[in-house]
Amino acid sequence: MLFNKKQKDRQLILLDENGFLLASCDSIFSTKNLRREPVFKDFPLVESIFPKVITMGLSDPKLRFSKIETTFGGLNGFYDFTFMRTDIDHRNPILWTILDYTRLYEDYYRSQQERQELAIAKELLRKV
Amino acid sequence: MIKRKVILTGSFGVGKTSLFNRFVYSKFDEKYLTTIGVKVDKKSMTVEGKEVTLLLWDIAGEISQDKVPNSYFLESSAIIYVFDLTRPSTYANMEFDLNHLNEKVPGAIVKVVGNKRDLVSDEELQTIMQEVHQMPDIVTSAKTGDNVEQLFIDIAKSLIVDAI
Q1: Contact call for A105 and B36, based on CB within 8 A
Q2: Is B36 close to A65, i.e. CB distance below 8 A?
Q3: Per-residue pLDDT at A109
Q4: How far is A49 from chain B (nearest CA, A)?
Q5: Which of B17, B21, B29, B71 has the most A C-beta neighbours within 10 Å, making it the best mutation to test the interface with A?
Q6: What pLDDT was estimated at residue A127?
Q7: Is-contact A85 A56, C-beta < 8 A?
Q8: Between chains, do B12 and A52 touch, taking CB under 8 Å as contact?
Q9: pLDDT tens, position by position, for chain B (164 residues)?
Q10: Is B45 helix (H, G, I), strand (E, B) or coil?
């Protein structure tokens, strides 16, 4: 079953057509406080793209957003989000997967920071 | 209520995150901190008697806009294309970038923003205006806050017109 095997760096969440949470494995963060309202309230990224997500069909490829930096809803780090329509007991909720890549992306962040600082400094020095 | 997704894009180090932070959190940090992917937040404002909520996506800077992942553009109603007035490399590809953005998000409102006004003199600004492919819609300074609120008011006004 979808929620049987827990992975601490991956959270699976099922949403209905209105953005209400149907189920979550809560591997990364607790969704206890997200049950009364659509998850939009705590995740503006989801709110932004949900109109597109609910038009997705079962055969559509998953929608992926990489390197999301967030402090919302109990998440604090770098994550990838994917969204896809899934089939569970003849119902078709939205499966939202959160992948915690904080450790991986922290290294990526440091190298990009150094690379870009150097490029900016070089360009500004050329102007002098 | 009008609620729309707005993306901030452009080359790296031009001040997209600083504009985002200035507008959303009223803060500015002198230190340059790169963005590796995307940060999203929202802010509501009342413009011309209408409540407008901007869902703002601060996207990692790319030298060329064709490097930005397609998924980031989904459902965008407006694009803020930012360049750095002090670095010609950040507006050298403006024509290509604006064409690319118009192809990716046809019909979106596009505002061109020249940022870091506090670092250039009036004379330098005149010279830069002659070099750019397209005159900026607004010139801002995230550091001083100059024109930042106005930029987002202008976006909100355009979105109101678009929604009618």
Answers
A1: yes
A2: no
A3: 94
A4: 6
A5: B71
A6: 76
A7: yes
A8: no
A9: 999 999 999 999 999 999 999 999 999 999 999 999 999 999 999 999 999 999 999 999 998 899 999 999 999 999 999 999 999 999 999 999 999 999 999 999 999 999 999 999 999 999 999 999 999 999 999 999 999 999 999 999 999 999 88
A10: strand
- How many other C-beta atoms lie within 10 A of the C-beta of residue B100? 16
pTM here?
A: 0.94
Q: Nearest chain A Cα to B84, which residue?
A: A120
A29-74 residue pLDDT tens: 999 988 889 998 889 999 999 999 999 999 999 999 999 998 887 7
Best mutation target, A48, A116, A123, to test chain B (most B CBs within 10 A): A48
| Residue A3 confidence (pLDDT) above 80 | no
- Which structural domain range is residue B130 located in? 2-163
How many domains are there within chain B? 1
| Residue from A62, A108, A120, A127 to probe the interface with B (highest B Cβ count within 10 Å) | A120
Residue of B nearest to A52 (CA): B75
Q: Is B43 on the interface with A (CB under 8 A)?
A: no
Please name each of the domains of chain A with its CATH number: 10-102 (3.30.450.20)
- Looking up residue B141, the CATH number of its domain turns out to be 3.40.50.300
Residue B111 near residue B155, CB atoms below 8 Å: yes
Burial B60-81 (b: 16+ CB within 10 A, else e): bbbeebeebbebbbbbbbbbbb
